[in-house]
Amino acid sequence: MCGSYVSQNIDSLYSWIKKENSNGWDPYDGLNSSITKSIAPKSLKIIFIQMNKFSPVNLRPILQIKKGLDLKGISIIAQANYRLFKITNDYKYLKELQYLTSIIVSNSLYDKYEFHCWASHYFPYMATDKSEMKEISPDIIGTSQAIIALLNGYELLGEQKLKDVAFNASSSLIEHFVGKNSRGLFLKYTLGENDKIVLNASAQGLEAFSYVLNFNKDNATFNTCEALTEFLMETQNGDGSWIYSIYKNGKTRVQLDFHQGYILDGLLSFIEYSKNEDALNECINAGADYYRKMFQDNGKSFYRYPMRFPVDIHNQAQGIITFCRLNFINQNYQDFAKKIASWTVNNMQDPTGYFYYQKWPFFINKIPYMRWSQAWMLLALSYILEQAEDSDNNEFI
Question: Is the distance from CB of 306 to CB of 364 less than 8 angstroms?
Answer without folding.
Answer: no
